[in-house]
Write a structure and sequence with these properties.
Helices cover 37% and strands 17% of the residues. It contains 13 helices and 10 strands. The chain has one domain. The longest helix is centred in the C-terminal third of the chain and has 25 residues. It is globular. The chain is of the alpha+beta class. Strands 1, 2, 3, 4, 5 and 6 form a 6-stranded mixed β-sheet that branches. The chain has a two-stranded antiparallel ribbon with strand order 7-8.
């Protein structure tokens, strides 16, 4: 995990398996591919820790969760969920995967805190393609607004501070989503045109302006499986959130930090806190004998240590 995260944060031009392996000193990309596809670890636990980390450093009661989607243009028909469909990123129909994302925009910075891979109906109804792409049996066709609602439910349950929710017309047209946000006691700005603005930006620019794609390699993966997509995206989001926190520190952010929530992964596993950041560190062993891979603290441009929330990675 250390090598993968460090590769995502490195100036490597293309953050795919081969180049990440070269940056780590590996002769082949086999290790990187094994890490995404076959090693035993839970991308959802990393997602929970990422969200807690972002809230700790970027959290603000005036923050705005932003629901939007982005397309990942692909070749071939093997990647989970890929088909010819409209991509807002390309502004046209492309052979692509669609990721639905929840961004968190606050006065202190913005980061991606949740994600879902959209599975088209034809994929959901094709057992052979599902098996080949490793799509779990419990995954069924779910509309994008329902995926967005599930991400908001997780954010609200985790006490993510925010004033209201925004998103595009795909989400605004869904009555169930609007009603859910109202019931949760939040306001919303939905069913908006692309020309309307949130602060000094158009609403549709918030996700597109998050530099995770090029900066943290969000779209530079080569995995085809369902599990591989979720694992790579979780780590790219984590790398981007770390950079957002470093930028806040470098810019002398004045927002008051919230008290640190305990790592979701460690809370469920009952393990002691283990520092996770983006430099080389020694490994540790949990009480149940599983090997954890912690990363040592990294120093920001201002000399402050920017620790990442702990992540429980089982090998």
């Amino acid at each position: 995990m250390r090598a993968y995260l460090r590769g995502l944060l490195s100036p490597v031009e293309r953050k795919n398996g081969w180049q990440l392996a070269e940056a780590a000193g590996d002769a082949t990309p086999d290790g990187m591919q094994d890490f995404l596809s076959r090693m035993q670890w839970d991308a959802d636990l990393v997602r929970d820790d990422l969200r807690a980390y972002a809230v700790e450093h970027l959290g603000d009661n005036q923050a705005v969760p932003v629901l939007d989607e982005t397309g990942f243009v692909k070749k071939g028909a093997k990647s989970a969920g890929v088909q010819r469909q409209y991509s807002g990123t390309a502004c046209r129909i492309e052979n692509c995967q669609i990721g639905v994302f929840l961004a968190y925009a606050s006065p202190h910075g913005h980061a991606l805190i949740d994600r879902a891979l959209y599975l088209p109906e034809r994929w959901a109804a094709d057992p052979a393609r599902r098996r080949e792409a490793g799509i779990p049996e419990e995954i069924v066709f779910t509309t994008k607004p329902k995926q967005g609602r599930a991400m908001l439910e997780r954010a609200f349950a985790a006490d993510v501070p925010c004033a209201w929710v925004t998103g595009d017309s795909v989400n605004g047209a869904d009555y169930g989503l609007r009603r859910f946000i109202e019931t949760a006691g939040r306001g919303y700005v939905l069913t908006v045109t692309s020309g309307q603005r949130l602060g000094f930006k158009r609403v549709t620019d918030w996700l597109e302006d998050v530099p995770a794609k090029g900066e943290a390699g969000l779209d530079q993966y080569e995995v085809r499986s369902w599990t591989g997509w979720y694992r790579h995206i979780a780590l790219a989001m984590l790398a981007h959130a770390y950079l957002a926190v470093v930028r806040k520190a470098a810019g002398g952010g004045t927002g008051q930090r919230r008290s640190r929530p305990r790592s979701a992964a460690l809370h469920r596993a009952g393990n002691p806190p283990i520092a996770l950041a983006l430099a080389v560190g020694g490994s540790s062993t949990a009480s149940d004998g599983r090997r954890l891979v912690p990363l040592a603290p990294t120093t920001s441009a201002t000399g402050q240590t920017m620790p990442l929330a702990s992540a429980n990675i089982t090998f």
